[in-house]
Amino acid sequence: MLRVRWSLFLCFGVLSACVSSKSTDSEESGKASDDLKAFILSDVPADIGSHIDADFEGKVILLGAHVEPAGPAKPGDKLKVTMYWKSQQKLDGAWKLFTHIVDDEGQRISNIDNVGPLRELHSGRQALPPSEWVPGKVYVDEQTFTVPAKVKTDKIELMTGIFHKGGRLTVTAGPHDVGNRALVTTIALTGVRPRVNTRIPNLHVEKLEPGVAIKLDGKLDEPAWKGAASTGPLVDVRTGEQNKELPVNGEVKVLWNDTGMYVGFSVTEADIVGGFKKGDVDPHLWTKDTVEIMVDPDGDGDNKDYYEIQVSPQNLVFDSQFDAYNEPKVEPNGPFGHQEWSSNLKSGVSVDGTIDKGKDDDHGYTVEVMIPWKSFSKALKVPPEVGASWRVNFYAMKNNGGVAWSPILGQGNFHKAARFGRIVWTHKGEAPAPGPSGSAPHPPLGGILKPPSPVAVPPPAAPAPAPAPSR
Q1: pLDDT tens for residues 227-256?
Q2: Cβ pair 36, 127 in contact under 8 A
Q3: Spans of the chain below 70 pLDDT
Q4: I want to staple 64 with a disulfide (CB 3.0 to 4.6 A). Which of 48, 261, 417, 435 is the partner?
Q5: pTM score > 0.85 for this model?
Q6: What integer pLDDT is reported at residue 103 of this predicted model?
Q7: Residue 290's closest CA among 270, 317, 261?
Q8: CATH fourth-level superfamily of 50-188
Q9: C-alpha–C-alpha distance, residues 238 and 468, integer Å
Q10: Would you state the pLDDT for residue 197?
């Protein structure tokens, strides 16, 4: 009898424990639901901070955000960011939110994916992920974080997005990068000594509409050029800074179609030098004045099977193909690379001034080039697919040195493909291709699609040194 009673007691105790556990889980679930009601709004609030309007495929919009406390921060400060999301359409699948803290060189230095009431993990799931959002509702996404102590740049950026195991929702409008991360905010930092910006620039180049013609006359006066993707001012190849004390400066614009790539150089300088005979084949243009295009079609920056193309103010051409970094090369006078290779380019040059007459009244020159895709015989695919990325660099040169789109920063000479910028070939108005799946990877291309911030360049204390050598 005692044994039966003891058994019943044990059974009753186990059942009580099971019932108690279920009751607790239910209560906690209900409590969590009640807690989240304050973060679900029927209407857009009057104050959403800075407007962002990042559109994720028309399904979700990141309306805006604000950061507290406002103003510059320093490493170790605790900040609170509040984002306002509006659900437009029901999302099918297990979609989640992610947030990355990125330094000014595009490097991810912290991940706060699961921080905040909507994102707190319960049994491995975010408390209220986008896949459970109701169309028409506004969701208040609060995150508190500490500015990482290891940051080495004088600003950080908060990047956010929506992902599942198959990839990320595409950002079709608003400030974002090529990894489909929306830019939430940029936070200036104090107490940080900025290092040299080693970030690789990238450019989204739109394809010409069918039937649009470009006349290669060196004038860049067609409407297509006015809206073409631009590098902005070329920079000191050694430092990455604008340096108006250098003897040559410039800017480059790029277009493309199914036939080839179009490149327009606008070069400024006060003493235009040609120095070669008309009809010279593959003259060493880099020793005088020239523009230069380096192309690594694979887009991996490994210096395998890349191309060098130069056009001078005299409209002379040097072009060559290289198997590896500066190889083959015969010192001191060449050949440099496989000079038998021809780019088959077409070009036009206009000169604002005179060539080889000293500093009489020279202002610069313009070079307009079309390089057929079929000339890039080492490329994996030509013409490139929309969304494909090539590694390219542009230079304006004088006396074996000059300025660049992507600076070399002392890591080699002008052939250093790991320092070439990235060009993404796109259609007009088309968003960048989706980034890698999941929240963790840094986008393969980097570069935030937003208006560039003005850069204050202090005047040099002493005359500028000679430009870095190209070879």
Answers
A1: 999 999 999 999 998 888 899 999 999 999
A2: yes
A3: 1-32, 194-195, 429-468
A4: 48
A5: no
A6: 87
A7: 317
A8: abc- transporter (atp binding component) like domain (2.70.50.60)
A9: 7
A10: 73
Q: 282: which 2 tokens?
A: 């593959």
Tokens of 442: 């840094």
CATH topology of domain 202-428: Immunoglobulin-like (2.60.40)
The CA distance from 449 to 283, in Å, is: 39
> Amino acid letter at 29?
S
Q: What's the gap between Cα 50 and its chain centre?
A: 22
Look-up of token digits 């940051």: 151
* 50-188 matches 202-428 in fold: no
Name the residue ranges covered by the structural domains of the chain. Answer: 50-188, 202-428
- Can you give the three-state secondary structure of the chain, one letter per residue? CHHHHHHHHHHHHHHHHHHHHHHHHHHHHHHHHHHHHHHEECCCCCCCCEEEEEEECCCEEEEEEEEECCCCECCCCEEEEEEEEEECCCCCCCCEEEEEEEECCCCEEEECCCCCCCCCEECCEECCCHHHCCCCCEEEEEEEEECCCCCCCCEEEEEEEEEECCEECCEEECCEECCCCEEEEEEEECCCCCCCCCCCCEEEEEECCCCCCCCCCCCCCCHHHHCCEEEEECEECCCCCCCCCCCCEEEEEEEECCCEEEEEEEEECCCCCCCCCCCCCCCCHHHCEEEEEEEECCCCCCCCCEEEEEECCCCCEEEEEECECCECECCCCCCECECCCCCCCEEEEEEECCCCCCCCCCCEEEEEEEEEHHHCCCCCCCCCCCCCEEEEEEEEEECCEEEECCCCCCCCCCCCHHHCEEEEEECCCCCCCCCCCCCCCCCCCCCEECCCCCCCCCCCCCCCCCCCCCC
105, 10 Cβ separation under 8 angstroms? no
d(CA 12, CA 10): 5
Report residue 394 as tokens: 């542009």
The pair of structure tokens assigned to 204 is 């989204």
Alpha carbon distances (Å) from 93 to 90, 96, 128, 165, 455: 10, 9, 13, 10, 43
In which residue are the tokens 């008309």 written? 278
Is the CB of residue 187 less than 8 Å from the CB of residue 156?
yes
CB-based contacts of 147, cutoff 8 Å, min separation 6: 73, 74, 75, 76, 77, 78, 79, 156, 187, 189
The rounded distance, in Å, linking the Cα atoms of 127 and 464 is 58
- One-letter amino acid of 143: Q
Residue 23: the pLDDT is: 35
What pLDDT, on the 0 to 100 scale, is given for residue 426?
95
